[in-house]
Amino acid sequence: MKRIVAPVLLVSFFCCLVASALFTQTENAEAIPAFARKYNMSCTTCHAPIPRLKEYGDEFAGNGFVLKDQDAPRYFQDTGDDNLDLIRDLPLAIRLDGFMQHQTVTGREVDFTAPYNLKILSGGPLTKNLSYYFYFFFSERGEVAGVEDAYVHFNNLFNSEFDVMVGQFQVSDPLFKRELRLTYEDYQVYKRTVGDCGINLAYDRGLMLTYGFETGTDVIVQVLNGNGIGEADDNRIYDNDKYKNFAGRISQGLGENLRVGGFGYYGKEGEANPDEVWMLGGDATLSYLDKLELNLQYLERRDDNPFFENTVPTDEFETQGGMAELVIMPDGERSRWYGVVLYNFWDSQIMGDDYESVTVQLGHVFRTNIRFLLENTYDIENEENRAVLGFVAGF
Q: Burial, 174: exposed, middle or buried (Cβ in 10 Å; 0-12, 13-18, 19+)?
């Protein structure tokens, strides 16, 4: 079994401790993200730690980035036109991530990957019950990645709990949001594909319809192009086939500490020899006193022709995937130190596509909107290690 070079881990951990000790003596950070600026409140109202959402933050996002029964002072410009809602100051925020990493698979001792992410975010209400959100990657892993999340949100339609989102978003957002995870390691079950078929649960374009019942039951239906968020063709068409794909989720809160959900997906990709895909899965979140949170995801997937062969194979291609994530915050939302343990697996019939890993992260909240992290991921399938030391900042 291969092991990570011990000196790299020791030096990384020492650097993390020194940085934390030095930085905690500096002055308070004055720059805070857009929504905190808008409502003159701390980021901890919605996040703990950034960018992980608390329940209140999830409700805030679901309400179109509006605090219930509270209007932001002087949010719209007074133009004398009662039919015009014009944002006085365009809300903007920036996220900046940087890392230093060592991977045994590359044989390189240290790789400086800063900036790893640099993006500008904007969002908020356009008028009553209509809001928007988007972000633009100035740099993602050294390239200009462009727009990922970008949608308009119609909130509380027909004076009910019925919402509609139109644009591009992650299919997995109703489950666990990849963009809000604490780890450098991804939620692999949402981004992986099978064979030549590009269908996964990451970014796509379409509609998301949601409805919340008083019983605590949430129902979500998605209608999707099914081919990601690539550029349009010569005819200005985004979808690359004649099919639309469908996804749905039902979740139910069981008391204050447990939520369970069921997820389904059906779709096709390809023109002449399409791959028919369906997925079924379950998820759960178990929390305890805001100090422990366990997130679980399991997914079954079937593809009948993932290599688009002229003759459809007799047997379906079976895939199982999932993840288990434990977030540990000793002092609840006020924790300055936290820990994360993440287990990923992807079990495929296709040679070389299997994946299994265990990730452990120790993090320190230096300021409310800045955190440092030390993380190690062990690739069980290939017996490789990746150690990461880095920071995440929002301002």
A: buried
Distance CA 256, CA 214 (A): 15
Question: Residue 290, by phi and psi: left (phi above 0), alpha (psi -120 to 50) or beta?
Answer: left
Contact 394, 49 (CB under 8 A): no
What stretches of the chain adopt beta strand conformation (E)?
76-77, 86-87, 93-103, 108-127, 130-140, 146-157, 162-170, 203-212, 217-224, 245-253, 258-269, 275-288, 292-303, 317-328, 337-348, 355-367, 370-379, 384-394
For 351, the token pair is 């040679």
Let me know: does 255 contact 275? Beta carbons within 8 Å: no
CB neighbours of residue 377 within 10 Å: 24
pLDDT of 26-62, one tens digit each?
A: 333 333 366 666 666 667 667 777 677 666 666 666 6
Spatial distance between the Cα atoms of 26 and 44, rounded to a whole number of angstroms: 20
Rounded CA separation 387/377 (Å):
6
Q: What is the pTM of this model?
A: 0.84
Give 370's contacts (C-beta < 8 A, 6+ positions apart).
Answer: 23, 29, 391, 392, 393, 394
Tell me the pLDDT tens digit for each residue of 175-194.
Answer: 999 999 999 999 999 999 99
Backbone angles phi, psi at 65, to 5 degrees: 60, 40
Count of Cβ atoms closer than 10 Å to residue 83 Cβ: 6
Q: Which residues of 206-234 are buried (b: 16+ CB within 10 A; e: fewer)?
A: bebbbebeeeeebbbebebbbbbbeeeee
**Distance (Å, whole) CA 4 – CA 12:** 12
Which amino acid does the sequence have at 388? V
Rounded CA separation 203/134 (Å): 13
Give the DSSP per-residue string, 18-68. HHHHHHTTSPPP----HHHHHHT--GGGTBSSTTPBPHHHHHHHHTTS--T
